[in-house]
Amino acid sequence: MVSRVIPVDPFDLVIFGGTGDLARRKILPGLYRRYLDGQMPGEACIIGVARGDMDTDGYRAFVETSVREFVAKKWCDAKILKAFIERISFVQLDATGDQGWDELKAATKPDRVQAFYFSVGPSLFGPIAERLHTHEIAGPDARIVVEKPFGHDEASARALNETLARHFAEHQIYRIDHYLGKETVQNLMALRFGNMLFEPLWNAQYVDHIQITVAETVGVEGRGSYYDKSGAMRDMVQNHLMQLLCLTAMEPPSKFEPNAVRDEKLKIIRALDQVEPGDMVRGQYRGNDEVASYLEDAETDASMTESFIAMKLHISNWRWNGTPFYLRTGKRLRGRVSEIVVRFKEPPHSIFEEDTGQTANELSIRLQPNEGMDLKVTIKEPGPGGMRLIDVPLDMTFADALGEEAAEAPDAYERLIMDVIRGNQTLFMRGDEVEAAWAWTDPIIAGWEKRADKPKLYDAFSTGPEEALMLLHKDGRRWREIR
Ligand code: NAP
Fold it and tell me: Is 403 in the pocket of ligand 1 (CB under 6 A)?
């Protein structure tokens, strides 16, 4: 496992929803990996909380099964796993009732770092915050970690912020967006602000356009009725794509510290123009012999909810005036890809003859698969065939360049949990950021609801509706292929 780790102070981590899907697949395996890496001090305690009929022994067995299922076999050392499991206990309580909180209080110590992870449905965020306060469980330096979705629109996000603010100060609230914990996202900041090479070119004068794609091959099967109430705009654009857009477009913060970074992100959200209906395409996937359609997955005969959205955005500020940002995300697409592509302009004057094949530089920052970056540069085609130009990628897949250490880099969740323990909010969303993102999103959704826009149908495992291709074609551009 990764060796260069910074140990953290002893802590108590309480996971509300400790038996849920997220805890099982991400949080608990991630904590084991941090333990294995020597990052979790011996005194650290993990306390699972849920209503289910379970005791500490039962929960320890649950944790062991989760770790064995979601951590590579080579890391599941029985002795280490046993020592890790001894750090774990369980408290049974219903977050909406008043029983069981004294047991929880007895299990945590306010004089150490306390983190309360709300890995439960959003309707429980308020009741838990309130009870942690009224039962005097959370010490003055306690942190709460709040999962997505953070609200359904601006009003509900604001109401949730107000509820949390009644019991916790902003510096104690960690709104999680796991995209921000990805290695490449942080590398985007290292690339932009740790090098002299790109930043002088990172503006409308040199950048033709930027594409942000988050494509998934999975459909909404299994959670269709839940998804049908949100759709791609609320589920992906308002949070994940917006965060990627902000980090790509923001001005250099004065320091890599929480409020400096978040102030700059907020300025981008506030500078976003509203999207014209003609600059946006919503879609719904069809079924085929192998997979069900969106409507079947959502268990409905008719739905106006989008499983795909593509849009062209403009940021009204000096840096980006005239450079469009194209965003797209969808389910049941041809590949599973998350990437940011910065397409630079062509040189202003070509000294080469026409038809030499000259094109523009393209920097792509891949979040998945194979986290890394590549830069397309134009070179002369080798050989005696005259001056023919071709593109070659300068590829830096982290796992290739940095070896096993990069391939084993912590998952986004484990990195973010350790940031919570350290008290570093840089990679978490501030309350005003979330509200501003909703304030931009709400009128767009209200617009298509008012127009009763129907989503365009697209084939399962395609690149989305034809109209999404046209969104770029009509500007003389094209999407990077989804492979
Ligand atoms: P889940 O599988 O439904 O688990 C919910 C957990 O909460 C269970 O442990 C459940 O146990 C507990 N719970 C429910 N009601 C409770 C109550 N009244 N008091 C105490 N505990 C209660 O949900 P999940 O998929 O883990 O998702 C948890 C949160 O993470 C949600 O906000 C979700 O949107 C977010 N999220 C999940 C994922 C993911 O991949 N799963 C990804 C991103 C965000 P009992 O029923 O025994 O109480």
Answer: no
Q: How far does residue 429's CA lie from ligand 1's centre (Å)? A: 21
Q: What is the mean pLDDT of residues 164-171?
A: 97
Distance 127 CA to ligand 1 centre (A): 14
Q: What are the two backbone dihedrals, phi and then psi, of residue 6, each rounded to the nearest 5 degrees?
A: -100, 120
**CB neighbours of 236 closer than 8 A, spacing ≥ 6?**
214, 309, 329
pLDDT by residue (tens digit) across 207-230?
999 999 999 999 999 899 999 999
Ligand 1: atom nearest CA of 50 is: 21
pLDDT tens per residue across span 56-107? 999 999 999 999 999 999 999 999 999 999 999 999 999 999 999 999 999 9
Q: Which two tokens stand for residue 96?
A: 């909406």
- Tell me, rounded to whole angstroms, the distance of Cα 46 from its chain centroid: 24
Catalytic residue flag (residue 240): yes
Q: Please name the amino acid found at residue 208.
A: D
Q: Is the CB of 148 under 6 A from ligand 1?
A: yes
Domain extents in the chain: 11-147, 180-409+430-473
Please indicate whether residue 152, judged by its CB atom, sits closer than 6 Å to ligand 1: no
Please tell me the class of the 11-147 domain: alpha beta
CATH 3.40.50.12500 fits 180-409+430-473, yes or no: no
What tokens does 113 get?
């770092």
Please count the other Cβ atoms lying within 10 Å of the Cβ belonging to residue 369.
Answer: 13
pLDDT digits (tens, 9 = 90+) for 19-56: 999 999 999 999 999 999 888 887 899 999 999 999 99
Instruction: Write down the catalytic residue from 167, 178, 240, 314.
Output: 240
**pTM higher than the cut 0.85:** yes
Q: How far apart are CA 307 and CA 330, in angstroms?
A: 6
Structure tokens of 97? Answer: 């009732």
* Angstrom distance (rounded) from CA 390 to CA 357: 6
